[in-house]
Amino acid sequence: MKICIAASAGGHIIEAMQLKEAWAGKEYFFISDKRINAKSIARKEKMYFIIQPKRNYFRTLVAFIQTIVIFIKENPNVIISTGAEIGYPALILGWILGKKTIYIESLARVNSPSLCGKLVYGKVDHFYVQWPEGKKWFPKAKYVGSVFE
Fold first, then answer.
1. Count of CB atoms situated within 10 Å of the CB of 110
2. Is 54 left (phi over 0), alpha (psi -120 to 50) or beta?
3. What is the mean pLDDT of residues 69-80?
């Protein structure tokens, strides 16, 4: 089994790192964008960097193409994402390819849903929220509490 952890740099990748036990003992790799904390993690972990989409159609297309190239090379069985723009191409491609997909809505999303969450809801195999309020926007999601607990 090979696991892809796709998360934007910053808080999203920090949240993903809290779940390290989930892939312990398995082959895994990360996809992120090239900002400082992701580059720091890349010193110890297998990491691929893709362009940050920034809600731009051309950049999003480039991110999808880069993710396809990574998936051809790595062929993951499971895609886990804590979101933002980097998680979107990985989760959608995973869905299209019939891979197991897991999305965890950001801990920061208490008062409104994330764009990534809205775009992947109903397409991923497992959708988790870290606040009970998240079920207002994603009724089929499973509330699991904070990744930091």
1. 12
2. left
3. 98
